[in-house]
C-alpha cells in the first residue's frame, strides 16, 4: 500500500500552503478601499466613535500586529469576531456552511451522473446524430451564464409548473433537498458539459486505442470493451478536471446562492465584502482555500486509486 | 495434405476515401494447416497487419471494407458471418497478440483479470474457476509466481513479461489459431529468443496454428514452416521456407533476403582501417565514468548506476558500435558524452577538453557533435519544412554566411540522398526512411566531428535499414566523421562498425574489433547475445533451451 503513503505526509505540505493563503487573504482584504468602522457606524459617525470601534476590533494597530493577532487566533481555532454580526466568525461560518456544502456535493454528483452517460452516448456514436445533438446542446450549456440558466429554471419549474420552491432554504431535510434541486441543476448543467466534453474526447481516443483493439481481438463485445476498458482509462484525466472545477465552483456558489437566496457561504461572503467585515471575509476565504486544497488532495487519492501507474 | 484449417481466397480489402476506392489488399489467397506456423513477411504498408485484422474482421477504420473473396475457418464462411458469431471466433478460435504489449494491455486492469475476462466470457466459468484457469495460464506462459502476479498491473513488468501476459490473454479462450503481429519487434534479442521459444512451445503443446507476422527474415527462417511474402497489398510469393529462401521467385523477396543483416560465419574482409597516428588526440576520451540516477521516494532513497565505471576512447575517424540490451546503459553513456546527462563521477574529454569545465566548453561541444535519434518522425519538428529546419541549424551555428545557407541546405540534402526537391517537404509527407535521412542531414549541418546515432535504424524496415547503414558508411568515408553507433541489432553493428563495445548493466563487458568480437566472443554475455540472433539459415537454429541461459545469469566482471 506504499502508493498511498502520500496520504500521510502530504498534509504536512498543507501547512506552508495555508500560511501563504492566510498572508494573501489578509493583505487582499485590507486592500479593499473603505473602513469597516465607518461602514458600521454610518456616514454621520463622529471621529471619536470611529476611533473607538477601530480600537475595539484592533484595527488601529499596525498591519503586522493585526496579522499576528489573526495568526494567534487561528492557532487557537478562532477567526475573530464579525464586525457586522457581532458573533464569532467560526460560529457564523458554521451556520452557513451546510447549504453551500450540500449544494456543491449535489452539484458534483449530479454533474457526474449527467456527464458519464452523455459522454458515453456521444463517444459511442461518434459523428452520428446523437453525437451532434449532444455537441450542440453542450455548447449552449457552456455558453449560457449560470445566473441566467437559474432564472430560466425558476420560471419553468417554480413559476409555470409550480413543482419546486422558488428560492430560500428549508428546515427539514426534504424541504432542504427540494430547495437544492434547482440550484444544483443550474450548477451541474454548466459543469457537466465541461466534464462530458473532456470525457467524450478521452473515450473517443480510448475506443480507438490498442487496449480496445486487443479486447475486441479477444472476442469481447463492445459493451465490455467500453465499460470495462475504455471508461476506467478515460476517467483519470477527467478527475483532475473535476477537481479544478470544484475549486472554481466554490467561487461560483456566490452567484448561484444569490440567485436562489440560499443562506450559504457565498451569500455571506458578498455581504461581508460590502460591509468591509474583514474578519468574515478572511474567514470565508480561508475556508474556501482549505476546501480547494482538500479537494485536490482527494482528487489525488482518487487518481491513485484509478490508475495503478500513478505514484505521488 | 491435411485439410486447411483456415482458407483465404482472393481476399480484397478496399479503402473508401474521398478520391474513390483504393485497394489495400489485392486478391490475397493462402491457407493454414492445423499446427502449421506460417510466416508473413513484408515491409510496413505491405498489408500484413491489415490481412491479420481482416481475418477476424477487425478493420482498423470504418472506411475499410472487405469487398471480395472469402475466409473460411473449418469450412465456415467468416466474411459474411453475423457479428455475434464473430465474437465467438475472436479469441475463442483465432487469438491475436500484438507488437507493443505495453499499449495493448489495459494499464488500469490487473494482468490476471485481463486473462480471466476472456475465460469468463467465452467459457462461462464462474469467478473462482476462471481465476484458477488464469493462474494456470500465467504459469504456462512463464510467470514464476502466477498466483501472486495475477494481481499485478502491466507496468510492474518488463517488456518481455508483458508480452508473455498478452500471449496468456490470447490463449485464455483456447483458440486454434494464434495470429502474432510482430510479437518480438519491441524486445531485446535475448528476450525475443525466449518469447519465440515460448510460442513454439505452446504451439507444440496445444497443436496451435500460428500466423507470425514479422519483418525479420531470421525469425521466419527459424520458427516457421512456410513463408508468405507480401508486397504492396499483394501476396507475391508463398512456399516452404527452405525452398523459398534458397530460390526466391519474386524480386522483392530477393531484395529482402539481400538486405537481411545476418551475421556471417566467415570473416568478412577487414574494413578499411584508418591509420592511427600515434599520439593523436582521441575525439572522445571517457575515463571511469559513473552516471547514477536517484530512485525511490521521499523516505527511501536509492540509486541505480546506469553507467558504472566505463572507460572508452574513440579516435578520430573511427566508427564504434555500442551494443547491449535495453537498460544496459548505452543510451545514458551517449547522452553523457553530449553533456545531456549529469555525470556522477569520472571524466569525459572531447578533443582533449574536459566537458565539465564550463558552459563555454558545452557550447563548443554542441557545435561539434550531433545526434541522430531513434524515432525519425518525432525527432523532426512537424511544422517546419526540411529546408527551414536545416536553415535554422545553419543560422544558429553561424559557421557560414547567411547568403550561402540555401545552397548549403541543398548540398546537405544531396549528401544524404534526398535531393533538393525535399527542401519544401514536411515530415508528415515523408516516409520513415526519408525522415531519418533528413535527421542525418540535420546532424551533418553542424559539420560535426562526432555523430552519435542512437538506435537510429531500429524503427525502419529492413530494406530501408540497409540503405541508411549504407549512407552512414559512405558519409564516414567521405567526410572523415567519427561515429558512435548505438544499436541492439548486432548484425548491423557488425556490418558498419570497425570496433564494437558490448555493454551489460552499465559496464563494458567486452570490446574489440567487430570481426573478432563477433566471431570469437570472449565474454559469455556477448556469446549469449550473438546466439540469440535468429539466423536467416533455417539450419542454424537458435541455441537449445538448456544452453540458452538468461543474460541475468552471467556475472559481470569488473
UniProtKB/TrEMBL annotation, chain A:
| Record domain ABC transmembrane type-1: where | 97-299
Q: Which SUPFAM superfamilies match?
A: MetI-like (SSF161098)
The record's InterPro entries line, in alphabetical order, gives: BPD_transp_1_N (IPR045621), MetI-like (IPR000515), MetI-like_sf (IPR035906)
Give the highest taxon in the source lineage. Answer: Bacteria
Per the record, the major location class is membrane
Membrane topology, record value? Multi-pass membrane protein
Q: Does the keyword Transport apply?
A: yes
Is Transmembrane tagged as a keyword? Answer: yes
- UniProt keywords, alphabetically: Cell membrane, Membrane, Transmembrane, Transmembrane helix, Transport
Q: Where in the cell is it found?
A: Cell membrane
TM stretches of this protein: 12-32, 100-121, 133-157, 241-263, 283-306
By sequence similarity, the record places it as follows: Belongs to the binding-protein-dependent transport system permease family.
- Could you identify this protein by its name? ABC transporter permease
Record the organism. Mesorhizobium ventifaucium
- Provide the organism lineage as a comma list: Bacteria, Pseudomonadati, Pseudomonadota, Alphaproteobacteria, Hyphomicrobiales
TrEMBL record, chain B:
The protein, known as: Glutathione ABC transporter ATP binding subunit GsiA
How is it placed in the membrane, per its record? Peripheral membrane protein
Subcellular location, record wording: Cell inner membrane
Keywords for this entry? Answer: ATP-binding, Cell inner membrane, Cell membrane, Membrane, Nucleotide-binding, Translocase, Transport
Q: Which family does it belong to?
A: Belongs to the ABC transporter superfamily.
Primary location group = membrane
- Identify the coding gene: gsiA
Pfam families, per database record: ABC_tran, oligo_HPY
Where the record annotates domain ABC transporter, the positions are 6-257, 281-530
The UniProt entry, under SMART domains, shows: AAA
Q: Gene3D superfamilies in the record, alphabetically?
A: P-loop containing nucleotide triphosphate hydrolases
Top-level division of the source organism's lineage: Bacteria
Question: What is this organism's lineage?
Answer: Bacteria, Pseudomonadati, Pseudomonadota, Alphaproteobacteria, Hyphomicrobiales
Q: Which organism is it from?
A: Mesorhizobium ventifaucium
Instruction: Please give the InterPro entries that the UniProt record associates with this protein.
Output: AAA+_ATPase, ABC_Ni/Peptide_Import, ABC_transporter-like_ATP-bd, ABC_transporter-like_CS, Oligopep_ABC_C, P-loop_NTPase
Amino acid at each position: 500500500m506504499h502508493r498511498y503513503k502520500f496520504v500521510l505526509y502530504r498534509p504536512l505540505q498543507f501547512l506552508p500552503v495555508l500560511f501563504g493563503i492566510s498572508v494573501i487573504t489578509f493583505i487582499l482584504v485590507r486592500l479593499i478601499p473603505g473602513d469597516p468602522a465607518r461602514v458600521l457606524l454610518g456616514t454621520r459617525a463622529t471621529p471619536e466613535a470611529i476611533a473607538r470601534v477601530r480600537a475595539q476590533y484592533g484595527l488601529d494597530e499596525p498591519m503586522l500586529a493585526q496579522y499576528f493577532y489573526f495568526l494567534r487566533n487561528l492557532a487557537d481555532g478562532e477567526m475573530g469576531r464579525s464586525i457586522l454580526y457581532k458573533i464569532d466568525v467560526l460560529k457564523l461560518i458554521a451556520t452557513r456552511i451546510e447549504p453551500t456544502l450540500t449544494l456543491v456535493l449535489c452539484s458534483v454528483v449530479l454533474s457526474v451522473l449527467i456527464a458519464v452517460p452523455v459522454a458515453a452516448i456521444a463517444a459511442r456514436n461518434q459523428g452520428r446524430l446523437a453525437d451532434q445533438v449532444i455537441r450542440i446542446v453542450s455548447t449552449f450549456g457552456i455558453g449560457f451564464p449560470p445566473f441566467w440558466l437559474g432564472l430560466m429554471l425558476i420560471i419553468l419549474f417554480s413559476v409555470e409548473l409550480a413543482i419546486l420552491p422558488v428560492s430560500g432554504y428549508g428546515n427539514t431535510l426534504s424541504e432542504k433537498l427540494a430547495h437544492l434541486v434547482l440550484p444544483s441543476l443550474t450548477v451541474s448543467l454548466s459543469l457537466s458539459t465541461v466534464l462530458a466534453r473532456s470525457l467524450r474526447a478521452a473515450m473517443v481516443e480510448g475506443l480507438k486505442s490498442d487496449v480496445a483493439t486487443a479486447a475486441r481481438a479477444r472476442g469481447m463485445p463492445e459493451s465490455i470493451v467500453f465499460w470495462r476498458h475504455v471508461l476506467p482509462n478515460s476517467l483519470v484525466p477527467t478527475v483532475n478536471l473535476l477537481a479544478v472545477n470544484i475549486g472554481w465552483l466554490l467561487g461560483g456558489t456566490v452567484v448561484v446562492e444569490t440567485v436562489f437566496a440560499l443562506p450559504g457561504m457565498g451569500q455571506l461572503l458578498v455581504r461581508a465584502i460590502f460591509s468591509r467585515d474583514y474578519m468574515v471575509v478572511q474567514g470565508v476565504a480561508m475556508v474556501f482555500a482549505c476546501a480547494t486544497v482538500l479537494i485536490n488532495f482527494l482528487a489525488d487519492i482518487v487518481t491513485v486509486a484509478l490508475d495503478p501507474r500513478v505514484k505521488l | 495434405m491435411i485439410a486447411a484449417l483456415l482458407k483465404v481466397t482472393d481476399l480484397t480489402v478496399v479503402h473508401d476515401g474521398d478520391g474513390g476506392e483504393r485497394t489495400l489488399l489485392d486478391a490475397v489467397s493462402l491457407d493454414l494447416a492445423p499446427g502449421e506456423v506460417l510466416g508473413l513477411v513484408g515491409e510496413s504498408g505491405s498489408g500484413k497487419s491489415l490481412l491479420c485484422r481482416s481475418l477476424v474482421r477487425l478493420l482498423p477504420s470504418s472506411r475499410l471494407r472487405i469487398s471480395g473473396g472469402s475466409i473460411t475457418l473449418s469450412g465456415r464462411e467468416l466474411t459474411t458471418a453475423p457479428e455475434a458469431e464473430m465474437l465467438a471466433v475472436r479469441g475463442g478460435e483465432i487469438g491475436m497478440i500484438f507488437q507493443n504489449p505495453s499499449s495493448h494491455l489495459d494499464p488500469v486492469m490487473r494482468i490476471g483479470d485481463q486473462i480471466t475476462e476472456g475465460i469468463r466470457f467465452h467459457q462461462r466459468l464462474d469467478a473462482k474457476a476462471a481465476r484458477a484457469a488464469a493462474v494456470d495460464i500465467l504459469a504456462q506462459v512463464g510467470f514464476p509466481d502466477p498466483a501472486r502476479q495475477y494481481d499485478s498491473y502491466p507496468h510492474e513488468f518488463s517488456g518481455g513479461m508483458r508480452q508473455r501476459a498478452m500471449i496468456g490473454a490470447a490463449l485464455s479462450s483456447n483458440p486454434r489459431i494464434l495470429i502474432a503481429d510482430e510479437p518480438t519487434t519491441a524486445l531485446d534479442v535475448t528476450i525475443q529468443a525466449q518469447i519465440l521459444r515460448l510460442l513454439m512451445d505452446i504451439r507444440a503443446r496445444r497443436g496451435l496454428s500460428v500466423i507470425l507476422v514479422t519483418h525479420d527474415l531470421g525469425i521466419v527462417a527459424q520458427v516457421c514452416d512456410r513463408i508468405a511474402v507480401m508486397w504492396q497489398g499483394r501476396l507475391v510469393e508463398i512456399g516452404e521456407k527452405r525452398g523459398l529462401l534458397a530460390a526466391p521467385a519474386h524480386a522483392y523477396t530477393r531484395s529482402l533476403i539481400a538486405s537481411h543483416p545476418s551475421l556471417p560465419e566467415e570473416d568478412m574482409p577487414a574494413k578499411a582501417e584508418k591509420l592511427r597516428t600515434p599520439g593523436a588526440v582521441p575525439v572522445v576520451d571517457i575515463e571511469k565514468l559513473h552516471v547514477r540516477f536517484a530512485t525511490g521516494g521521499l523516505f527511501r532513497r536509492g540509486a541505480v548506476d546506469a553507467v558504472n565505471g566505463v572507460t572508452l576512447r574513440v579516435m578520430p575517424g573511427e566508427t564504434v558500435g555500442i551494443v547491449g540490451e535495453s537498460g544496459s546503459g548505452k543510451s545514458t553513456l551517449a547522452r553523457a558524452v553530449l553533456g545531456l546527462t549529469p555525470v556522477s563521477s569520472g571524466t569525459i574529454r572531447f578533443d582533449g577538453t574536459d566537458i565539465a569545465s564550463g558552459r563555454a566548453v558545452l557550447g563548443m561541444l554542441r557545435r561539434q557533435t550531433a545526434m541522430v535519434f531513434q524515432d525519425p518522425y518525432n525527432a523532426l519538428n512537424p511544422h517546419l519544412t526540411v529546408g527551414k529546419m536545416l536553415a535554422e541549424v545553419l543560422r544558429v551555428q553561424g559557421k557560414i554566411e547567411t547568403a550561402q545557407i540555401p545552397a548549403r541546405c541543398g548540398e546537405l540534402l544531396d549528401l544524404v540522398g534526398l535531393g533538393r526537391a525535399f527542401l519544401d517537404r514536411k515530415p508528415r509527407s515523408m516516409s520513415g526512411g526519408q525522415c531519418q535521412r533528413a535527421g542525418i542531414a540535420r546532424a551533418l549541418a553542424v559539420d560535426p566531428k562526432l555523430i552519435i546515432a542512437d538506435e537510429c535504424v531500429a524503427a525502419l524496415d529492413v530494406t530501408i535499414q540497409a540503405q541508411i547503414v549504407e549512407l552512414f558508411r559512405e558519409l564516414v568515408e567521405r567526410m572523415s566523421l567519427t561515429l558512435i553507433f548505438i544499436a541492439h541489432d548486432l548484425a548491423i553493428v557488425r556490418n558498419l562498425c570497425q570496433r564494437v563495445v558490448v555493454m551489460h548493466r552499465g559496464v563494458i563487458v567486452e570490446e574489440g574489433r567487430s570481426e573478432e568480437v563477433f566471431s570469437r566472443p570472449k565474454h559469455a554475455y556477448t556469446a549469449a547475445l550473438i546466439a540469440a540472433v535468429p539466423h536467416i539459415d533455417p539450419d542454424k537454429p537458435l541455441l537449445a533451451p538448456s544452453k540458452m541461459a538468461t543474460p541475468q545469469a552471467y556475472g559481470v566482471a569488473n
